[in-house]
Amino acid sequence: MENIAVIIFLLFGIAFLGLLSNRYRFPLPIALVLGGVCISLVPGLPVIALNPEVVFIVFLPPLLYGAAWNTSWHEFKANLRPIGLAAIGLVIFTTVLVAMAAHWLIDDLSWPAAFLIGAIVSPPDAVAATSVTKGLGLQPRMITILEGESLVNDASGLVAYKYALTAITAGNFVLWKAGLNFLWIASAGIAIGLAIGYIMYQVHKRFVCDSVIEVTLTFLTPFASYLLAEQFHFSGVLAVVTTGLYLSFRSGEIFSNQSRIMAYSVWEVVIYILNGLIFVLIGLQLRSVMAGISEYPASALILYGLVISFVVIIVRFVWIVPAALLPRYLSKRIREREPFDPRNMVVFGWAGMRGVVSMAAALALPIMLTDTVQFPHRNLIIYLAFCVILSTLLLLGLTLPWIIKKLGIEPYSAALEEYEVRTQVATHIITHIEENLSLLQDELLHNIKSKYEVKYNRLQKTDLPANYFGKGQTLAGNIFNEFTQLQIDLIGIERNSLEKMHRAGEASEEVLRKIERELDLEETRLQMEMYNG
């Protein structure tokens, strides 16, 4: 009971860090890892550790599902080659070179343990990548590659992790068998993910009609996909990612508007708490971890952390040059279809932050190898994983905005795309009304048509730059903002009037809450309609 209370109070602290992060525009993953360090320095806190066997089950399915849900399948498919090179090739390359460096650097470290370290720190983190790059104006293709890489490389990194773990626990490892087995468990994991996705698609579409149940099912789906795949020793990670991509692509068909609003809110909270909880747990264990590696001199531990972190960072830059240039050299089609800017290679290399998945993989290591033998180098591996996360988030994450500015990369704005989509939708609706609803009563037809004509006319009066149709230009003015802000202000007056009636007891609670929810939904819609640059 006492331990649960400690975790709850520390999560309050993490929530406060989130407030500071939003207020001062400080990337949340960096705030979380620094929060973990601060927790480890507080004297008297208990050492709390989840059972390693349940760490993956608790953290991985929802985190991976949430990342997959927010990934565009069209953009993912269009950039499959660079995503695959980064998510598979770069992960293997990083694992091998980190293993070589760790084995050379640390005298008593076996090759399987060295490969285990490499597998843990090889995959960059999706949450870290999106949080740090948010608001930097990167091109959509670069964002897609970074997010797609972070999504798929968790699978390849964790497969390598499990092979290295098997080599330690079982004492045997055959490379060619591992390669064939990887193809089998990956294919089977994807197949299970598709099967679960299809089943849940049919369930949502045919049977579910309640928002609470729909959101509950979205929360349980990744766990079902992961556990079913793992039950048959297939890739649970790929199963979850596949299910997320499948259902996300079809979400417009199966979810009601209320379910979508509720689901996004619930999932934002779940992902935030899980990210905070993993760093609370590492903070509570860090003092114990450091005590477990006390036989190493402090200077040696610092050297180990710096060298492994340096290798992780530099390997990414070494890989990106041939991975980006060779396909262009070998394929005329790639040269003609894909724009090339060498500055994007620097941005990609600099965006290799590690985060919660690496930390969860380290914490999931078994405590005991057998009933009487401890897992070798467990504390050292956790320490090195934390060093890599800390160094990549601080060094790369904090300097990435400065690097983008120094490179002179022109910020991308989605305003033009938003303008064109809104115009096309409004035009289509007006055409539909004129062609299919002409038999309505004149007053009703006029009222419904006027609603969309107002939207269309406001779009036509939006101030656009003179070279609007030039490639890559950004929108000079804001879309709808003046009219939309006026509506939001009036909703505020409506809400104040409703609150006065609430306090005076002039209407029932049921009616008041219903109207309040209508105002909340309308204000949310209007806020999303505004463009804030």
Could you walk me through the main structural features you see in this protein, from its secondary elements to its overall organization?
This protein is mainly alpha-helical and 533 residues long. The protein folds into 3 domains: 52-256 and 290-407, Na+/H+ antiporter like fold (Up-down Bundle); 415-469, no CATH class; 480-533. Helices cover 78% and strands 0% of the residues. It has 22 helices and no strands. It has helices spanning 2-23, 28-41, 52-69, 73-78, 80-105, 111-121, 126-133, 140-170, 175-206, 211-231, 236-249, 251-254, 257-292, 298-330, 332-337, 342-350, 356-363, 378-407, 415-436, 442-460, 481-504, 509-529.
Mind telling me the C-alpha Rg?
A: 26 Å
Task: Determine the CATH topology of the largest domain.
Answer: Na+/H+ antiporter like fold
- Give the CATH class of the largest domain: Mainly Alpha
Order of helix and strand elements from N to C terminus: HHHHHHHHHHHHHHHHHHHHHH
Structural category: mainly alpha
Strand content: under 5%
Largest sheet: none
> What value does the average pLDDT take?
82
Please identify, by name, the CATH architecture of the largest domain. Answer: Up-down Bundle
